[in-house]
Amino acid sequence: MDVRFFAAAAAATGVEEQAVDLAALAGTAPFTLGDLSKFLVESFPVSASLSTPPLSELLTRCSFLVNEVSQRNLATALAPDDVVDVLPPFAGG
Predict the structure, then answer these.
(1) In terms of DSSP H, where are the helices of 1-93?
(2) Cα separation of 48 and 53, whole Å?
(3) Does pTM top 0.70 for this prediction?
C-alpha cells in the first residue's frame, strides 16, 4: 500500500510518500484505516519540521482519501494495492 502525505502532513513526516507492507502488518486480520493511523503515529513520533506539529496532532484533523475517494470511517479495511492520501486542512479549513 502507498501512503501519500500532503502539506503539513508531509512536513511533519519529512516524506511525501511511504510504502507500507500491509501483509507484514496485518497478517490474516483486516487492517483498517484506524490501524494505519496508529501505525503512522508510531512510525513518525516527532515532527520532521520545527514549525509543524507532530503527525499525532495532525491526524485528528486530517481527511483521508482511499483510492481517490474520501473516507471518514476508520473501520474501513485496506488492501495491499490501495493508495491512501493524508490531507490536513488547507487554508485554515
Answers:
(1) 7-13, 22-26, 33-43, 55-58
(2) 9
(3) yes
